[in-house]
Write a structure and sequence with these properties.
Length: about 240
């Protein structure tokens, strides 16, 4: 049983038409899931742009899901929905909830199909408004403890999935902590620290991978579970520019 993943992060709207086409071609050739760990859009944390064409390019490339990064967040639900209006795929964030209603394309977790396999995926965003802070008075969104949200997601997904993935925009330190907290996770695909790095942790082991930034390179990852139930990992960086 094997799973192939193409992983990007911290695009910062740098994904142009050529790179999007290359990603779509790579995805189709390899039968991979195409996933992103957040900060894809151009807008910063505290403002909203009228359009985010990078999301349309990602949709055309065939992205299966992405995490909420700090750039995708806005302190009002209406602004966050405007930021993500051109998204044609699930946006994941287990540690953020609206005070009322839903968040449109933003889900806490989802399941994807990769051939005959079921892949459970959840997202984790950086905590932009700490619980109990004064800023909560101006927001109709609430951040949860990322550790508690991760455990909740794992409990919800692990019994029904062949593979369990986390899309994290919390940086390498929290990703390493997540691998210890939730050893059931097969791969933690991270961003936010703009690094290119791959690590294996624990007996399973859990893959922790960061692919670099600004659409210059992507990680291509192959996970295979052997007869003993251990994960065997192949990881390579593919340059797009």
């Amino acid at each position: 049983m094997a799973l192939t993943i193409i992983h990007t992060a911290d695009l910062h709207a740098r994904l142009d038409d050529g790179a999007a086409e290359a990603l779509g071609f790579l995805r189709a050739q390899s039968g991979a899931l195409l996933l992103d760990s957040g900060d894809a859009v151009a807008a910063g944390n505290i403002y909203v742009l009228p359009d985010e064409p990078v999301l349309a390019r990602m949709t055309t490339a065939g992205y299966d899901a992405m995490a909420v990064g700090n750039r995708e967040f806005f302190f009002r639900k209406s602004g966050m929905l405007r930021k993500l209006a051109r998204t044609g795929f699930p946006v994941l964030c287990a540690n953020l909830l609206p005070l009322a209603g839903d968040l449109g394309p933003v889900l806490r977790w989802t399941t994807l199909r990769a051939g005959e396999q079921t892949v459970g995926v959840f997202g984790l965003a950086p905590t932009m408004i700490p619980p109990g802070s004064w800023a909560e008075r101006f927001s109709d969104l609430r951040f949860l403890s990322w550790e508690g949200a991760a455990r909740e997601a794992v409990e919800a997904l692990r019994g029904s999935c062949d593979w369990l993935l986390a899309l994290s925009h919390r940086g390498m330190a929290d990703d390493l902590a997540l691998a210890e907290l939730c050893p059931e996770i097969d791969a933690i695909l991270g961003g936010h620290t703009h690094m290119s790095d791959t690590r294996l942790l624990g007996a399973r082991p859990t893959l922790v991978a960061h692919p670099g930034h600004h659409a210059a390179s992507v990680s291509v990852l192959r996970l295979e579970r052997n007869a003993a139930g251990r994960n065997e990992v192949e990881a390579r960086i593919v340059e797009l520019t």
